[in-house]
Design brief:
By secondary structure, the protein is an alpha/beta fold. The protein is built from 5 helices and 14 strands. 23% of the residues lie in helices and 29% in strands.
Length: 254
């Protein structure tokens, strides 16, 4: 599977500008099976969704159009409004138009996200082109139980607005998630300063199932990179080392 990461700055609280820029970036991206966009890619990480949040069907429709025209799945999160509530909702849309959604479970209390958005309680597992994929959002990265590989997934995704001042945690935790779950792990982060003066250095990265870096970006720079993931190599590593067979057994409680 080929995945493409779009590391870019975001226009602060400007959905139309961001949709235009991503339509252009998606259109000019190299051929790929999956394209990753940042967390809250239409606005930046804003705690003011009123008047900015899209309806779920509007966001789905835009992503379906982009995925269909590019013949690639697209994954990213955006603020949405539904039944009087706001959600930080991840969308994974296939080229055929199938829409998967996940509402971010771990809301970032340091920024008061839990006061504005309603959390999700159920993770999702996506089967796409022979790969089993678990997508999560930003702050979820700090909670390994939520990503524990009990479903035999192959690829773990994180889309984020992770600040530069905590970039060492971003780098360390992504590597740890790949190693402990014996899976490919991709983290896509934005760059640039947001409307609150928070700086983001990007440092987007893809790790192989042993934690080795197979793609990374220069900090603070916008860019588009594609990497090929090898399902056969993943299976060989798991068969040879077998660490997942020794994992603890437990149930996640919502």
């Amino acid at each position: 599977m080929q995945i493409t990461l779009l590391q870019t700055a975001l226009f602060w609280q400007a959905p139309e500008k961001n949709l235009r820029q991503f339509a252009q970036k998606i259109g000019s991206a190299p051929p790929s099976d999956l394209i990753l966009l940042p967390e809250m890619f239409t606005t930046g990480f804003s705690m003011h969704p009123a008047g900015l949040a899209a309806k779920p069907e509007e966001m789905s429709s835009w992503l379906q159009e982009q995925a269909g025209s590019k013949n690639s799945a697209i994954c990213g999160s955006a603020m949405v409004t539904e039944e009087g509530k706001f959600h930080n909702r991840l969308f994974f849309v296939t080229p055929g138009g199938k829409v998967y959604t996940y509402d971010k479970k771990h809301l970032f209390t340091l920024a008061g996200e839990e006061k504005v958005y309603s959390p999700g309680h159920t993770s999702i597992l996506i089967e796409y082109k022979g790969w089993r994929i678990k997508p999560l959002v930003c702050y979820d990265l700090r909670f390994p139980v939520w990503s524990r590989n009990v479903e035999e997934y192959d690829l773990l995704l994180y889309v984020a607005n992770w600040p530069e001042r905590r970039q060492s945690a971003w780098q360390a935790l992504l590597k740890a998630r790949a190693i402990e779950n014996m899976c490919y792990t991709a983290g896509l982060n934005r760059v640039g300063e947001d409307g609150n003066g928070v700086s983001h250095s990007g440092r987007s990265v893809v790790h192989d199932p042993l934690g080795e870096v197979i793609l990374d970006f220069k900090p603070f720079e916008e860019g588009v990179q594609t990497v090929k993931l090898d399902k056969e190599r993943l299976q060989k590593v798991r068969n040879k080392l077998g660490f997942l067979k020794d994992r603890d057994q437990f149930e996640l409680l919502s």
